[in-house]
Amino acid sequence: MESPERVELPAAFEDADVDVLVQLIADMMERVMAHNDQIPLSPESLTRFHSRTAPGISILDYLRRIVRFTKAERACLLITLHYIDQISARMPAFVLSSLTCHRFVIAAICVSSKCLCDAFCSNSVYAKVGGIPVAELNVLEREFLRIIDWNLTCTGEVLQEYYVNLVRQFSKGGYVISDAQSYSSLSSDSDMDTEFSPTSSPAPTPQPVMQTLHPHSSGNVPSTSRREPSTFLIDTATLAPEAPQPPTLEQNMAFAALQQEHAQELESESDMDTAR
């Protein structure tokens, strides 16, 4: 059987086709989610980004929908991975799963577009595209900014590193970066194998795939020489799966309480908007 034809991608992420970039990002997110979905949900792990059930649209189609209707730029898509690493480091309770991914992604792209782009959509547009009420997106946006402490940017080298590793770890194969020598410092196999190999754990349940790449210190972006293991720069295929467990009564009660508190906040915000 013949091996599939390999498609050459541009050396720089800025030149990559947007849909190819979406495929790469969605592929990695799906693998991380598949692992994290097997971790039993605990009441203390609930966050604003949790939904009661997983959305009926895949993250690939969700990202394509966002790109189609908001014209999200390449940097805004890639930096979403950086945000996940940063927030996972700041908020250990957050885990990228089928219950959190979609809401996190729409909030992240909404925020990154405002930060990185000269032109961007209103929250009402992002909310409609994301399939959530605008008041809910406002709450998610505030929570996102609070957790990440307004550290919304990173260097182009960091985004390029995500791009190189997404191509290398694409589960379907078939993509290769042209002129790889130009980015040897980013894509050296020996360098990556040494710094980004996941470590095994004796714990009886899978551990969340959520480490930081570039933790901020006093608002400054540290040198790449100080980088640490990252969610998206490791091979998730090496993580041992375990059968998922249904939520307990305590978890369901905690989730219901969180949802009720969230609903009260949305109602309060709606009343304030009406009063204005």
UniProtKB/TrEMBL annotation:
Residues 184-200 have a biased composition (Low complexity). GO terms for molecular function: cyclin-dependent protein serine/threonine kinase regulator activity; protein kinase binding. GO terms for cellular component: cyclin-dependent protein kinase holoenzyme complex; nucleus. It comes from the Eukaryota. CDD domains: CYCLIN_ScPCL7-like (cd20558). InterPro entries: Cyclin-like_sf (IPR036915), Cyclin_PHO80-like (IPR013922). Residues 184-230 are annotated as: Disordered. Residues 214-224 have a biased composition (Polar residues). PANTHER family: PHO85 CYCLIN PHO80, PTHR15615. This is Cyclin-domain-containing protein. It comes from Polyporus arcularius HHB13444.
